[in-house]
Amino acid sequence: MIYQKGHLARPLDAVLSAPSRLAVLRALYRARAPLSGRALARLAGINHQGAATALAGLERLGLVERRPAGRSDQWRLERRRWIMAELLLPLFEREAALADAVAGAVKKALRGKAAAVLIGGAAAKGRLEPGQAFELVAVELPAGRRALGDAVRGLTALFADRWSLKLTVRVLTRREGLRAAALEDLWEILPVEGPPSYFATGTTAQR
Predict the structure, then answer these.
(1) Residue 107 belongs to what domain range?
(2) Torsion angle, alpha carbons of 189, 192, 196, 199, to 10
(3) Residues 52-63, buried b or exposed e (16+ Cβ, 10 A)?
């Protein structure tokens, strides 16, 4: 049927036609209150003009709502729209769960196999881009590296098969781990329970 073409068949085309629209929607989804255009541009990581253009397009689609507030407008998602409620919000919810799913997989695979596991590289700085390796630093237990090596191989395959992520793991002794934690920007993911970490306060962050 001819009417089953165009926008009815591809409603996401208009939403995802520009990266700036997706960035604006994601920022509004994460916000707990309406945002001004300037605040929204800052959170979305785009310039003010780009945010204004994206908002105008999204407003025409009925996906954002503008409310005057003094000298600037405040923006929020229009959650009642079908595209938003049925398509976009579930996508954003699943997207938001990705980082926790990755961290959970690391914890499940390496708990009991390593004395500590830390995220390093671009991911530790919040700058991981497609194609970049997700870097881990694993500190070995006194028993040695064999069990840890087997677990790392399984985790590497999981990262590739499930998330299309390249995983690299640097295995260190406890002494090497102490030295690395004092020098590098690392984010601690294990241990998550038990005795306090032996890594220096202020050089790592516990989840």
Answers:
(1) 98-190
(2) -10
(3) bbbbebbeebeb
